[in-house]
TrEMBL record:
NCBIfam families: DNA_YbaB_EbfC (TIGR00103). Keywords: Coiled coil, Cytoplasm, DNA-binding. It holds the Pfam family YbaB_DNA_bd. Belongs to the YbaB/EbfC family. Its main location: cytoplasm. Binds to DNA and alters its conformation. May be involved in regulation of gene expression, nucleoid organization and DNA protection. This is Nucleoid-associated protein ABS766_03670. It is found in: Cytoplasm, Nucleoid. Residues 5-32 form a coiled coil. Homodimer. It comes from Flavobacterium rhizosphaerae.
Amino acid sequence: MFGDIMGMMGKIKETQQKIEETKKRLDTVLVDEQSNDGLLKVTLTANRTIKSVDIDDSLLEDKEQLEDYLVLVLNKAIEKATAVNEAELGAVAKDGMPNIPGLDMFS
């Protein structure tokens, strides 16, 4: 039994390391989003760090419209990045968890 516990602890530590490696890799995964008319484009990492914002000059004439565009496009981009992030980290965590009867957190 003690050997089983040590084996599980080793597996958990290995999984934690894989999760950290995945988080670093997600800094290099880019998510692009744009407004329907293409006047505003943003790029984020899968860890939800904004990398670039491209604003068409026509949006600079109307502050309120630009703010609306930023809110909509950034929220869509963050939603996409979060989905990628959760899928990647969830897959690593699920694969690395020891099989403990009754503990079906990732099923």
